[in-house]
Automatic annotation (TrEMBL):
Domain named BFN: residues: 1-133
TM helices/strands, residue ranges: none
Pfam families reported for this sequence: BFN_dom
SUPFAM superfamilies attached to this UniProt entry: Hypothetical protein TM0160
GO molecular function: nuclease activity
Protein name, entry field: Bifunctional nuclease family protein
Species in which this protein is naturally found: Lusitaniella coriacea LEGE 07157
Length: 168
């Protein structure tokens, strides 16, 4: 799994649909997830740390429920992508009891932001749906790897018999 963070909300240039952008720790990969208008507002509100509304909205209500029942959101996991739909779970615990609750990624992200919980994405999902952010850095990394491989010799893989007994 890869821990990701919310980089922001964008709008699709053609459909004007909101997209939440998740980025990995190196800022090299971005995972765009199309979301609804209301979820975009909830995520933006959490990102910008708006004052809570006078009456709790859905994600604030969920957060209040977690706190009232002494439950903690450990993490959000976006675990699969099927037919262009992302799937996520909330990993919650209360004492020794741990549960995974099915959730839309947009709701999971909005709740994770309110609880300062990490957002994790399965590597297969990142591989299938992410977009490169820094193509030049990706190409440089590929070139360095190709150079490294092309300079390897069979003897580089032979273990030398010169190691001391303290290293074994």
């Amino acid at each position: 799994m890869i821990e990701m963070r919310v980089a922001g909300i964008a709008l699709d240039a053609i459909t004007r649909s909101p997209i939440v952008l998740l980025k990995d720790g190196s800022d090299r990969r971005a995972l765009p997830i199309y979301i609804g208008q209301e979820q975009a507002k909830a995520i933006i509100g959490a990102l910008e740390r708006h004052n809570p509304p006078p009456r709790p909205l859905t994600h604030d209500l969920l957060n209040n429920l977690l706190e009232t029942w002494e439950m903690q959101l450990d993490r959000v996991i976006i675990h699969s992508l099927q037919d262009n739909t992302f799937y996520a779970v909330l990993c919650i615990h209360q004492g020794e009891i741990k549960k995974e609750i099915d959730c839309r990624p947009s709701d999971a992200i909005a709740l994770a932001l309110r609880t300062n919980s990490p957002i994790w994405v399965m590597e297969e999902v990142v591989a299938d749906a992410s977009i490169p952010v820094d193509r030049e850095a990706d190409e440089e990394e590929r070139k360095a790897f190709r150079d490294f491989i092309s300079n390897l010799r069979p003897e580089d893989f032979i273990e030398r018999g010169t190691s001391s007994s303290s290293e074994q």
